[in-house]
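Suppose you are handed a protein chain with no further information: no name, no annotation, nothing but its sequence. What can you learn? This example shows the usual starting point.
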Amino acid sequence: MKKLTTLFAALFLISTFVLAGCGSGNSKVSDGVNSMLDTTKQISDAINSGDQAKVKEVGPKLEDQWKGFEDEVKKLDKNSYEQIEKYLDPTIAGSQAPKLDKEALGTLNNQLSDALKELQKKAK
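A reasonable first move is to predict its three-dimensional structure. Written in structure tokens, the prediction is:
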């Protein structure tokens, strides 16, 4: 009887760790997406106000945020990963351009935000 109790306890602990590990990837993705959406909002606000210095300051943060959870996204949903990659680099490059192209950067930033929102739905 004691062996059976010990076996169930061990299985319970293993199951708990496995389930916790599965959820942590989605949590990491959700947290990362939220951070990136906050950054794209800051970029959008800076574009709308014509604050090129703020755009240049905030734009590169996207890359660092993305690096923190992109591997989990690749495992979770390859299509979302590809969509984000498609808009991420041009958005960052546009944020660092010598002259702010409000229309082009605004469009890229919106497309990146849309891709992030789609991923957000899938990560729940």
